[in-house]
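Sanity check

After download, print the first record. It should look like this:
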Amino acid sequence: MRTLLVTIGLTVALAASACSSSEPTTVPTTVPTTTAPTTTVIVGDGSIVFGEGAVPDGVPSSFPIPQQGNIGSTLADDTLGRYEMLLNLPAPIDATVAYYETNLPAVGFVIDRSELEGLTHMIAFSGEGVTGLIQIEAKGTGELSTASIRIERS
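Expected structure tokens:
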């Protein structure tokens, strides 16, 4: 029972520190890496790389990723200049929205639109020669969220 209470306490502390809306969360200084294999498909003069666990090449290095964010599947399409990743976050949807509304402008991106569409919160942004869309959804009982991120070179 004590182990369960300690685990719950740590989980709550991590979620609070990952996406606190009262204080801006700092952008990590290191980009998550992975040893998971990638699959590369050559298309004309470019390539499409499918992977997981690391920010795909082509995403601006200043793009904010919450410290507790777990990067799932990724795609880097150099042919079209499109980059995608799925983030799993130990925080509710409103905390994840607050994180991006605070941290995107802090690193030079402009939020062009931020609104709830059905059960998904959409954040459109631009800057550093890219445009992008973040689709944030609640998972499970609402204490977790996912952010599907798509970035395109302008």
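If your output differs, re-run the checksum step. Summary of this record's structure: The chain has one domain: 2-153.
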